[in-house]
Description:
The protein is globular and about 45 Å long. The strands form 2 sheets. It has a two-stranded parallel ribbon with strand order 1-2. A two-stranded antiparallel sheet has the order 3-4. The protein is mostly helical. Helices cover 49% and strands 6% of the residues. The protein contains 6 helices and 4 strands. It has one domain.
Amino acid sequence: MLYDGDCPLCMREVNMLKERNESYKAIKFVDISSDEYTPEENQGLDYETVMGKIHAIESDGTVVTDVELIRDHLQAFRRLYEEVGLGWIYAITKYEPIATVANSVYSVWAKYRLQITGRPPLDNILEARKKKMGQECSNDKVCKM
Length: 145
C-alpha cells in the first residue's frame, strides 16, 4: 500500500490497517512522503502520480488504482481490507447503486483531500519536495522524486 504519510486523515486509516496487519503480515506499507521513497522500487510510480489517488501494488507487481484493471475507485481499498480480515466493510460497495455513490464520494475526496486536511496545493508540495530532495541528493547530480 502506497500512502501519504503527511495526510492526517489518511494516517488514521493506515494506522488501523497496520494494527490489523500485525496478525496477518499481508500488507507492506510504503510512505510516499518519506525521503527514502523511490519510484524505481514501486513499479515506477512517481510521487506526483501517487499523490492523486490511492495505489497498491500486488505481490505479482500489478498496480491497483482507480483506473487501471478495475472499474472503480474502491478496488484498492477492498483488497487491502480483505487482506486484514475486514473485507466485509467494503463488500457492499461492489453493488449498485452503492458502488456509484461510493466512487463519487472517493473521487471528491481524492480531488480535494489536500484542501480538506488544510494542506497546500499539490504544486506547492511538489516544489517544496523538489527543493528538499535537491538539497539532499545534490552530490548525486541526479535526483528523482
